[in-house]
């Protein structure tokens, strides 16, 4: 893959991360506002929405920093990028796995809906980030 093509693929990935982060924030904030308007007491939804909003802001910040620093890469830098994305994919899978354990602990052991809501949001984030990173790796490997 040529350097300008790699830059286009990397920019697309970072924009997808930015869109996911913004969507997460809007979803979380929207649910929080809806619960506040209805004066509903729903700890699972509150903690799910709060976690989605916080992680959405973090992902947007990460994506904006990456977007700002994108430049064309040489061969060694491209290999380093692929290694970073592979490690990120492993981290995403671990995030989803650990969050699944958090859900199980929240439901089965301590019976706390707030812990379950946090776990559900983390599974959602880990799953979507895993898919986005795998798509990025596939684009890098095929050059498309």
Task: Outline the structure in words.
Helix 2 runs parallel beside helix 4. The model has no long low-confidence stretch (mean pLDDT 93). The termini are close together. The chain has one domain. It is elongated and about 55 Å long. It is built from four helices and no strands. By secondary structure, it is mainly α. The longest helix has 36 residues.
Q: What attributes characterize this protein structure?
A:
144 residues, 0% strand, mainly alpha
Over all CA atoms, what is the radius of gyration? 18 Å
Low-pLDDT segments, ≥5 res: none
Major beta sheet summary: none
Give the helix proportion (percent range).
Answer: over 70%
Count of strand segments: 0
Shape: elongated
Concise description?
This protein is mainly alpha-helical and 144 residues long. The chain has one domain.
Itemize the secondary structure elements and their pairings.
Blueprint: H1 3-38, H2 43-68, H3 75-109, H4 113-142
Helix pairs in contact: 1-2, 1-4, 2-4, 3-4
